Structures are given as structure tokens and as C-alpha cells.
Automatic annotation (TrEMBL):
This is ABC transporter substrate-binding protein. The keyword Signal applies. Gene3D superfamilies: Bordetella uptake gene, domain 1, Periplasmic binding protein-like II. Keywords: Signal. The keyword Nuclease does not apply. Belongs to the UPF0065 (bug) family. Residues 1-32 form the signal peptide.
Length: 335
């Protein structure tokens, strides 16, 4: 017996394909409409209590309220802040694991010869968050009382002076390296596992100097009892602490280190999910409590045009190029 096949018209095939595509689209929209259905994890590359951690915890609450789910902050510490980006780059691109990171995303390619991720290729960009100036501090009983005295003392006693940082590859290390480079000195550097422990030892008198973000240093500067401050790292003085001169105006010409922060997701995270994450970020940076607390930390939340995927993408690319030149000129390396 010969089998008979009913011919299928091109119109029928085309209709079937269209129906299937429509079903997939509806399924995708349904997924986007229900996301998130569980807790979102916001990964921080540094220790609890440090500057980036402080910012993450401030943002987590209003972001969670916008998303309708809890946003949990999780610290993935190590390798100068490169473990967390490596983790995010390998994470499932479903929007449930995201990251906040500072300018270390831009400096890492120049600092590390074998970086396990590419900041410009392996992530989706949620948006910029804020800019944070840095300050140069010493223990309270350090012999110098102003920047000129600090320069003189350091140059004469460089083998006796210790300079703390938040870990190899951290921005505080970079700031300290540039400080030494411009003064032409080599101090004993003491890396810690985060800015919090470094600050604790500075206040305790175990180390001499530390260059760190105002999110960490502003409270101890303002109480005036536990550290000395020698200058801010931005070209202009801070409106919140106008009496503190810049390092630039005190002789370190061109010294400009401002720590910017951005938020990232794994490459391939669905566009609709990214849109929700961006909306949540913008809700957070407009939150009155967040604005108040960030101002108290002498920092600046970004304008809405920067809190966008494109704003972060362009800024990151420009910063990678900028710091590549600066780091190579200074001879700084994390390896």
C-alpha cells in the first residue's frame, strides 16, 4: 500500500511559524511581567562596612521596594575587587544576581595582566550611581600637622612611614600609589581586606596614612578626634567640607581621583529585565533618605542622564582609556 501525504501549503507553514513566534513572544512578555519572583542579590566586591558596601545598602531598600522583592547585599571579597566581577560575568543572566562596583572596573585592565573578564564586553550596564571624592588622612598623633609638613616628613622618613589601603587593586591603593609617585617616595604599603579594617587600624594608630573615599572618611573627619586630614583628591574643594584644601592647590598639580560607581548585570540579561533594574536604580537615587545620607557622606548622586545603560557604557569606556595611560605612566601594578 502506498502511503499518501497531504501537501502542506507555504501559507500554512508561514502561519504556523508566525503562531509559534507569537507564542514565544507572549511567553517572553509573561516572564518579563512576572520578574522578579524572588530575592535579587546585589553583589559588592569589597568587605562589609566599606564605602561601596555603604552605598549598596543605602540603595538596596528603595530598589527592593520598586521591584516588589527584597534586594540582598552580598559581599564577594578578594583579589583587589576582581572576584565579584568574575562571578557576575559567569552568573546566569536572569537579573537575580547583579553588582555594584566603583572605578575599579576601569582600572583593573591596566592593573592586572590576566583579568578573567572584560569590563567592556562581559556585562550589561544598568547605570551610574554616584561620584565620591577621596581624602588623604593620617593617624591622630602623626608628627605632621599640615600638608607641607607631611611632604617634608615623608621625604625624610619614607622608610618609617606606612600607607594603608583596602587591598591590592583597590582605589585606595591606586590613590596611595599616585601620591607616592608624585612625591617621589616609596612608603611601606599595608594592604587590608577592605576599607573598614584599614580605617580601624588608622584610627587605632597601627598605620600612618590612608587615602580613602568620603563615604568612609567623612564621619571620622567631621568628629575631629580620631584622624588628621591633609587634603581632598578632587580639583575643587568639597562644599560639605570647604575648609579642607585640595592636594592640587597644595602642590600635587593635576592630582584628581574621584571614585564613581556603576551597577552591572551578566551579559545577556533580557532587555525587559534590564529596564526594570534601571527603573529601580533611578527610583533609589531619587529617594529622599538616600539623597540625605549621600550628601552627609560628601558624595554626589549622578544626574538621570548618567543613570542609564548608555551613560555607564560610555563613561566606563572613557575611564578605561584614561586610567590605562595614568597607571602605566605611574608604573603602578597589582601583580
Amino acid at each position: 500500500m502506498t502511503a499518501r501525504f497531504t501537501p502542506i501549503s507555504r501559507r500554512t507553514i508561514t502561519g504556523s511559524i508566525a503562531a509559534a513566534c507569537a507564542a514565544l513572544a507572549l511567553g517572553g512578555n509573561a516572564l518579563a511581567n512576572t520578574w522578579p519572583e524572588k530575592t535579587v542579590t546585589l553583589v559588592v566586591p569589597y568587605s562589609a562596612g566599606g564605602p561601596t558596601d555603604v552605598v549598596a545598602r543605602l540603595l538596596a531598600v528603595p530598589m527592593g521596594q520598586s521591584l516588589g522583592q527584597t534586594v540582598v547585599v552580598e559581599n564577594t571579597v578578594g583579589a583587589g575587587g576582581t572576584l565579584a566581577p568574575a562571578r557576575i560575568a559567569r552568573s546566569k543572566p536572569d537579573g537575580y544576581t547583579i553588582m555594584i562596583h566603583h572605578m575599579g572596573m576601569a582600572t583593573a585592565p591596566a592593573l592586572y595582566k590576566k583579568l578573567p573578564y572584560d569590563p567592556l564586553k562581559d556585562f550589561e550596564y544598568i547605570g551610574q550611581v554616584l561620584d565620591v571624592p577621596m581624602t588623604l588622612l593620617s593617624r591622630k598623633d602623626f608628627p605632621a600637622n599640615n600638608f607641607q609638613e607631611l611632604q617634608d616628613y615623608v621625604k625624610k622618613n619614607q622608610d618609617k612611614v606606612s600607607l594603608a589601603n583596602a587591598g591590592i587593586g583597590a582605589v585606595s591603593q591606586l590613590c596611595g600609589m599616585l601620591f607616592m609617585h608624585q612625591l617621589g617616595v616609596k612608603l611601606t604599603t599595608v594592604p587590608y581586606k577592605g576599607a573598614g579594617p584599614a580605617m580601624n587600624d588608622l584610627m587605632g594608630g597601627q598605620v600612618d596614612l590612608l587615602c580613602d573615599q568620603t563615604t568612609q572618611t567623612a564621619p571620622v573627619i567631621q568628629d575631629g578626634k580620631r584622624v588628621k586630614v591633609f587634603g581632598v583628591t578632587t580639583p575643587q574643594r568639597l562644599s560639605s567640607m570647604p575648609n579642607i584644601p585640595t592636594l592640587d592647590e597644595q602642590g600635587l598639580k593635576g592630582f584628581d581621583v574621584k571614585v564613581w560607581h556603576g551597577m552591572y548585570a551578566p551579559k545577556g540579561t533580557p532587555r525587559d529585565v534590564m529596564a526594570k533594574l534601571n527603573t529601580a536604580l533611578n527610583v533609589a537615587i531619587k529617594d529622599e533618605n538616600v539623597k540625605k545620607r549621600i550628601a552627609e557622606l560628601s558624595s554626589d548622586l549622578v544626574t538621570p542622564d548618567k543613570a542609564t545603560p548608555e551613560g555607564l557604557r560610555k563613561h566606563l569606556a572613557a575611564e578605561v582609556a584614561r586610567w590605562d595611560k595614568v597607571i602605566k605612566a605611574a608604573g603602578v601594578s597589582a601583580e
